[in-house]
Each structure stands twice: as C-alpha cells, then as structure tokens.
Amino acid sequence: MLQTKTIPYFDGDVRLQGHLAFDDAGSGALPGVLIAHSWVGRSDFFMEKAQKLAELGYAGFALDMYGDAKLGAGAEQCSALMMPFIEDRVMLQRRMGCALDALRDQPEVDAARIAVIGFCFGGLCALDLARTGADLRGAVSFHGLFKPPGNTQGNAIKAKVLVLHGHDDPMVPVDDVLQLEQELTEAGADWQIHVYGNTMHAFTNPEANDPAFGTVYNAAADKRSWQSLVNFLAEAFN
Question: 94 CB contacts (<8 Å, ≥6 apart)?
C-alpha cells in the first residue's frame, strides 16, 4: 500500500519538511529518489511526483529548500525565495546534502541506492549535488539551469547524469548547453542530454502558459521526458 509521511530535518537551525512516499508491500529497503522543487517551493506538484515514483517501486522524497515548506505566490515572492541560493551555491549544496542525509536515514530506504531529480531551479540543485561528488546513482535535470557554481572544478561526478531540456528555453542559451557538456565530460560523468524541439522552459508543468516569460507546458515533451526518467532510473539502480 502507498504510504506518505512528512519528514522533518534540519540545516543548522532551519527546520525543513520533506514529503516521503513509498509502497510498503515489499520487505526490502527501496532505492530512494530526491525531488528538488522549482522556485515555487515544495508544492503539491512535487509531492505528486514522489507518489508517482513510489508507484514505480522507489521511495520518493520531495525535499524542502526553503524551510517549513514555504511556497511563493507570484514571480516576486518566488524569486525572493530562490535568489539567496542562486547567489550562494555553497548554501545550496549544503542544503541539498541535508536532504540527501535525511533520505538515507529513513528505514524504508536503501542508503546505497539514491538518485536525485529536479525541476527548473531544482534541476540546478540536482546538478549541483552531483557536482559536489556526492555518492549518487543518478542525477536528472528537467528544464533546469546549467550555470556552474564555481566551487566544484576538479571534482569527479560519480552520478550518471540525464539532462532533459527544451531547445527554446530562453533561460538556458545554447552556449550553456555546450559548456555543460564540456563540464560533465571533464568531470568524467556518464552523461546524456535530451533536447526537445519547439519546447520552452517549464515544459512539464501543466499550469505553465506564459510565452512572454518563456514558460509553456508541452504535453509531448512532458510524456517523453518522464519515460526517459523511468528508463534512466531502471538502469541507474540496476
């Protein structure tokens, strides 16, 4: 049966609230998948992703970057929540590490088999956790940001990396894609980048419908990218 529970964890004095979903039908520990949220925060969208992953046989953990599961309302609030992490990537990486530790501590989870996925801002978070050299099976970015943090040069990336990207994403110019390819190669990563044509930012979010801002849902890219994730996780956890 599918089970869900809130997992409190901490980064220093900051109380964070993760959402864990898993199926308790089996007897063994499950591979765990961290889910890093967009600039909005740990909304229902990401908790639903945790439950979809639980249905696939994983323990899905929708992490909390902001504390107390804060949510932004509108671009101004969301930006105010996200920008401190964009400006302080060490803090971003530390908070991702706290989520990784919290997931590994769960009795339902196989601590040796962990992957991370993320959407938009969360895609950057997933890549940054891999960039630190964390012991991960996989790291997946859905329409994420690619700019390197500046403090991970020379690190070996242990995780297999899958990047799912819209070609027409105005937030990620083509040069950023090429630079990411070079960065991942130099770090020795096993990497893939899937680029979807005629596809903008936030293509997995059914509520995204702002062409002027560059965020538009694309049903085909949403379906294709999720199938790519399913295939990737099966390989990464094999």
Answer: 11
Tell me the two tokens of residue 52: 């979809």
User: Where are the chain's structural domains?
Assistant: 2-236
pLDDT (tens digit, 9 = 90+) per residue, 67-126?
Answer: 999 999 999 999 999 999 999 999 999 999 999 999 999 999 999 999 999 999 999 999
Euclidean distance between CA atoms 54 and 24, whole angstroms = 10
CATH fold of 2-236: Rossmann fold (3.40.50)
> Residue type at 20?
L
Q: Indicate the SS3 state at residue 61.
A: strand
Contact 125, 143 (CB under 8 A): no
The answer to whether the CB of 38 falls within 8 A of the CB of 91 is no
The DSSP line for 82-105 is HHHHHH-HHHHHHHHHHHHHHHHT
How far is it, in rounded angstroms, from Cα 103 to Cα 118? 15
pTM value is 0.98
